[in-house]
Structure formats: structure tokens, C-alpha cells
Predict the structure.
Amino acid sequence: MNYHRFDCIIVGAGGAGMMAALESSRKVGTAVVSKLYPTRSHTGAAQGGIAAALSNLEDDSWENHAYDTIKGGDYLVDQTAAEILCKEAVDCIYELEHMGLPFDRTADGRISQRRFGGHTKPNPIYDPSATPGTDAAKPRIPVMRACHAADRTGHMILQTLYQQCIKQGVTFFDEFHMLDLIMVDGECRGIVAIEIATGQLHTFHAKSVLLATGGFGRMFKTSSNAYALTGDGPAIAYRHGLPLEDMEFYQFHPTGIYRLGILLSEACRGDGGVMFNGKGERFMDVYAPNLKDLASRDVCSRSIEQELRAGRGVNGKDYVYLDIRAETINKYKTSPTGSDVDSHWVEKRLPDIIDFARTYLGVDPIKEPMPIQPTAHYAMGGVPTDVHGRVLRDTSGEVVPGLYAAGESACVSVHGANRLGTNSLVDLIVFGRRSGKDMARYALDREFQPFPANPEAPTRMAIDSLLSRPRTEPWVKLRDEMQKTMMDDCGVYRTEERLTRARDTIAGLQVRYKNLGLQDKGTVFNTNLLEVLELGCLLDLSEATVASALARKESRGAHSREDFPNRDDTQFFGHSFATKHGDGQPTVTYKNVDVITLEKDGKTTTKYPLEIRKY
Ligand SMILES: Cc1cc2nc3c(=O)[nH]c(=O)nc-3n(C[C@H](O)[C@H](O)[C@H](O)COP(=O)(O)OP(=O)(O)OC[C@H]3O[C@@H](n4cnc5c(N)ncnc54)[C@H](O)[C@@H]3O)c2cc1C
């Protein structure tokens, strides 16, 4: 009955999914299945920009971009993948431009670029013997690398890709929620989804399936992520015994709106904004004397936490200020060019941010600073893939035939232990495109494999059982406990004690989850049912995150263990793979980091030597 057949099925209509669909549909029949209407995907919320070394405003190179990406990820980045990202970024931007994406322009008509944290180039006047603190003493300086359309870059990307997909005849199943993968003999043959409007189950038979379901920031209490970001793709893969990579690395963005978590883009600081503590001090002077407010996100978030712990929050509360007033930018000489700006300029560069602050904070950033605190933002980890988007079965690098992943739900490992701002959007486009290409190649090479009888049966049983149980405690109670636990015990700073407590709390919630009964027993638009199913995904991902964080007894990038404050390259220079076995805790094993080596004069050296990370 509700049976559909396409060469390629793409789950998710964000930047990664639609870029892949555009590519695969050039060659083979492609359908996109999305629980949201496509242009409501979170990619549309991305603000600040997309990275590519175009050299439009100053000299830059993909090599600079790769160096920053690898250092930004605290060296846990697969270096071949990072080089692909940075090289192909340039071509991807021009492809988007040719599709009609309305980038901001320079006066002479080229794509405009702005600065972002951790994006640098070598300082031409660098002198190692110069007096510390002087310009000549800085080995690297910020570079303008982020292409943007005001502070609505993601919105423009999503609209552009959707238009192109429609033009090219991609089929869309909007508001269809994937609930299971159809795996036969270790291969992926399709998916099971529920049509939200009717409650009916549909099966999709495919030669290749892409998971592009986005992030899972809803695990945490304070998050910049939309409600739909519940990690369905990775959770479903995990339940099929597939590993999740580098889950302990979850990024906290330094500048979320106080209490609400709504993001105030790093473009604020790229364009000259400065953070201040309650004593009016520019505290990043202390933590990152060179790049200051433009240090990487993990460094800035930890610095804010340190200020709050030391009692230097504003008015004794747990927030600090982000100040983007023109007078502040001029006083500290932080504008991108160093010359003075006026409030009209700020308003033009950051219109949405200013609007958010006025609407949600009742603060006018043109006249006063904005209260901010770190907010859960981005999953560096996810479903492990190779550079063609093919999902890895285990640490040996063997791939799962027919299954692909891209975007925030995947881990091709270009972000390592900490992602640089603007590197996610470019990851979606570069690896979305590569996945789409390889999915089409794979589909062209192969016949449809036999489809199992009733592959939706386990899903139907699970739903029937949920609907038939008597109503129990409300599901939001479990969600709130999970979010609080993850925020307090698996947040910016971690310890063995807190992580152990988090592990036990999540395990307890998993047991209570199994007994949940619903309030709404209907079929039409049963959001209660879907929210409970999404909570199940978040609990599984919390379990994998905490297990990976417990296993990693070092501090690296976004994973800061107070009981193991240093990076330990002898024991932990590897990607964690968390794998579920039945109902117990997952096992955590490690895969080698891909390191590029160079041969010179009979000697082997590494292209990106491990350094102590300082900004
Ligand atoms: C507020 C904010 C600002 C950001 N700003 C920037 C920025 O300036 N630069 C940058 O590089 N990065 C930025 N990021 C990060 C970046 O936007 C995201 O990492 C990226 O957009 C994720 O894209 P995606 O294609 O992987 O998934 P998404 O765009 O999140 O899309 C996920 C898709 O999966 C679908 N889906 C999910 N589950 C299911 C299911 N079970 N069944 C069917 N469909 C499903 C959804 O319907 C949706 O279409 C920002 C993130 C946020 C939250």
C-alpha cells in the first residue's frame, strides 16, 4: 500500500540533504523525506556566514583555512577530509552564487567576507623577538573568510537550494517523519516513515539512503537549536548497532541570549563586538591575548564560565555582556578594517541579531550591551563516514552498503574536538554534494535488492504499544530531567563524579521511558506521539555522549575534564566510537586520526604538527 521506490532517499531537507538531492537527482530518481516543511529546517536559522578562502578582501588560501580547521579542532580532525573541505569550499561558494544565492557584495561587486573566531592567516610583520602585546608579536592575525548575506546566510542557502531542487524535479515528502532504517544482511534497503497528517506508516525502498537529519542540541536545557533537533538519524543508526563517533565533543557557543539560549552570531564579534564582565573588563585579554574575542568557541565559553565562577558576572548574576555599540567598536578599534564605524553600519551588518535582542531581551544593542551566557549549539560527533559520505560500520573503516550520512548528523571528522564558526554550512555543501554524487554512482551500479516483507512491523508494534498503554507521568518531566542533567553534569566543564551521576540519571530515565503512556491516542497530527519518539532518540544520544565523555580522560577542544585538565596525545589521540549492545551501556573504542605525512630527505614528518593550542 504505502510503498514508494526511489534510487536515492534523502532523509532531511536542510542544507546537507538538499545539496545531496540536487547532486543525485542529476543522474537518478531522488526523493527527500522531511519531518519539517523543507524551508523550516535549522539551516535556515544560520546567521553569520559560510567559510571559503576566496581572498576577496585580503590574501588567503585554502591551506590557511585547513590549518585553522585542524588547530580549531584541537588536532582531532581527519586531515585529508579537512583539506577536501577547504579546497572544495571555494568551488561550492561559486556554485551557490551561480544558483542565485544573494550574497552581500563588496563595493566592486565581489562576494563580501567577514571575520569569524579562529579563522586566521600568518602575520606578515611577525617577529618572534618583538615585545609581547605588540602587533609584531602576533604569529597569526584574523582574516575575512566568511561569505555572508547579512546575518541571514543560512536562510538564503536553504531558499536557494529548495528552488533548485524543485526546478530539477526532486520529489518531496514533506512532514513525513522517519522512524526506522530497513537493514538487511548489514545493508541499507530503505526507511520506514510516518505521515504526520494521517498517522499512516509508509515504506521507502531505495538503493541508497542518506541520513541528513541535523543536530541534537535539544539534549541540553539551554540551547540555540530548534525544537526539531532531536538527532533521529544518529539515534536510529545507533539502535541498529552502528557506532556514533566523537559524541563527547559538543560545542557550547559563547554568546546565547541570557536564559533563552537564542543565538547571537559570532559575526557580532567578527564585526567588532567585545565581551565584558561585571567589572567592565574585557576579560578575553586574559584568556586569549592574541585573538581575544575572536578566539575559538570552546576557549571563549570556558572563559565566560571562569568569569562567572569567580563572581565577575554582571550584577552578581550568571551572565556577561556582549557589546556591539559603534562607540565600543571604535574605542577598542575592533572593526574589521580598524577604522571607525557608526550605528547605521552595525544595523546593516547585523539586522536580525539586533531584532532578536530587541524582541526577546527588550534591549536595544545599538544603545546598550546584551546579557549573554554559553548555549548548547553544535554536535561535532555523529554517524561516522568516509569522505564520500559512506557510513562506517566500525573502527576498521569498512562501509555499510547503501547507507550515507552528511551534515550535522554525520561525523566525517572535519571539526574534530571543536568546530570553527562558518565551517558547518560549508561542510553541508561540500560533503552533501560528495554524498549525492556517490549515492548516484552506487545506485547506477546496482539493481534494487529484494525488499523484506512488512519491514514496518517493528515500528507498528512500538507505536501500538505506546498508544495502548495507560497514561503515565508526562513525557516533558523526563525531558526536563534529561536536559537539566546534560546541562549541569555534561556541560562546558565535566568531572568523573558528575559524568557518573549523569550516566546513572540517564539510565534511570531510559527505564521510565519504556513505561511511558500517552495523553493523545489519536492518529491525525499526533504531535504527542512524535515528541515522545523524539525524546527516545535524545535519551539514546545522551547515553552515548556521557559514555564517550566518561571514557575520555583528558581535556581537548570542547571536552573539558576538570579532573584531567591537559590534552593527552599519547593515550587519547583517537576518535571515539560508541556502540550499543542490547540494553546495557555502550562500549567505547577508538579509531586512528587521519594524519598527513610528508617525506623529505628520507625523513617522515607530519604536515600539521601537533601544537599546544593557544589563541
Ligand atoms: C541559530 C543557529 C545559527 C547557526 N549559524 C551558523 C553559521 O552562521 N554558520 C555555520 O556554518 N553554521 C551555523 N550553524 C550551524 C548550522 O546551521 C547547522 O549545523 C546546519 O545547518 C545543519 O544542517 P543539516 O543539513 O545537517 O540539518 P538541518 O538544517 O537541521 O535539517 C535537518 C533536516 O532533517 C529533517 N529531519 C530530522 N529528523 C527527521 C526524521 N526523523 N524524519 C524525517 N526528517 C527528519 C528535518 O525535517 C530537516 O529538514 C548555526 C546553527 C544554529 C542553530
In short: The mean pLDDT is 96. The first strand starts at residue 3 and ends at 11.
